[in-house]
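agent> fetching stored inputs for the zinc ion docking request
agent> found them:
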Amino acid sequence: MPRIRPIRTEAIVLRQRPLGDADRICVLFSPTRGRIEAVAKGVRKPLSKLAGHVEPLSRGQFGLAQGRNLDVVTDASTLDSWPALHDDMDRMTEALALAELVDRSTDVDVSSRPLYDVLRHSLDELASTKSPRAVRWWFTLRFLDQQGYRPELEGCVRCRSEVGPEGNGFSAADGGVVCPRCHGAGVGRRLSSPVFRLLRYMRRSSCEATAQVNVDADASAELERHLRLSLEQALESRLRSSGFAEALARAEMVGRDATSRVVESEREEQQRAAI
Ligand SMILES: [Zn+2]
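agent> prediction call returned; pasting tokens
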């Protein structure tokens, strides 16, 4: 639907890529409009007024006019540039991981205030924390909640019995903790007591408090695995609902070669929007 008037919105710049000789396409995340792709014209030229305000992982106010295909950034001013985040490789790596998750999971023109607030708060914390990975863990739990994949941590996802801290499993496919009996029957991967407690602690605690917890290498590796598998579940389901699976099925029916190019381009498109 054509939009007559330009809009103004606050947004976090998730990433950008070059366009032509002088422009960039910026992927913005707005609390009221979700994911926006907009052209920032002339920002790769010296003396561009826009250039300093469209850097990835900064927060600003943006004026956007409707262009032929994409929106065009008409003006921008920075609200947060998080310099401490940009000066530290570990913090930057984690911040980029958060931005990528949001980029791949957020729709255009969908109000996303809760996820926006969690991202903004996490970037604030990342700029000062001594434990960047813990900020990502905290963010990931909340990201999963907002994707509709809130991991169950109170009762067994298979038999609904209450669980204590010992002997449990974790099944990303079933969406949470598995009691010792069901785990003994082969459901889920081992969920150690420290990681079980940490997951519960992270759910009820602030990002700052989560970043204070000492986590040893084994627990860290185990937690990373459970979170990664949970993210795969959440994002795969999105992939399925996005039409990518239908594109693959069509390719199989018609003959993979004939349609491979179409599917590849659809795959790229869907992956950008969906994974
Ligand atoms: Zn059970």
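agent> quick read of the result: The longest strand covers residues 7-19.
agent> awaiting further instructions
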